[in-house]
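Throughout our pipeline, every protein is held as a single compact record rather than as scattered files. Such a record has a labelled line for the sequence and another for the backbone structure tokens. The remainder of this section carries one protein's record, kept here as part of the documentation:
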Amino acid sequence: MLISRRSLLIALAVMAMALLSPLEEMAHALASAHMVQHLLLILVAAPLLSKAIRFTLPKWVSPPLAWLLHTATIWFWHAAGPYNAAVVNPLLHGLEHLSFLGTAVVFWRVAGIGRQPEGIGVLLVFALALQSVFLALLLTFADTPWYWVYSATTRAYGLDPLADQQLAGVIMWVPAGLVYTGIGLKLLLTWIRQHDPTPELSSSPTL
């Protein structure tokens, strides 16, 4: 197993920013801060870890299975019951973050980060972006707050619970959507170059 030290150090720094900085305290008071935590782990730390640690997954871990597992994890922890429980229970909160990070690392690995990308993996990156946008739209345009755990905490930051949830949805919708798209396009271009049938131009001078 090979390790890229630079990518690993950056990934650890991002994880520390998400979990050990004042952002962690804010995440117990604001859904929007909690969303930033999630996205730092899923969209920054996880791809960096996938690139940093060159590991081999079992053959049965296919791209569709990795996509399904990661998508199910995202939707499960954003459902009202598990989400509220995770905010009030430190052990569940840790499990939430670990499951986000772990399934994301596996997904980005099979999608092509840290290895040669495949067409199905690239396609599933865009599918992951679409499901993320759909969940973000549900959060953004909800008529009532989903998470009672923030009912008494958002006022200190000048937000009511619904506005805070809508901000969380917008964060998941726009910045996260751009990152998903950027990663997907980069993997797509890499995959196209791998399958480009155009022969390299000769280096000899023309007459």
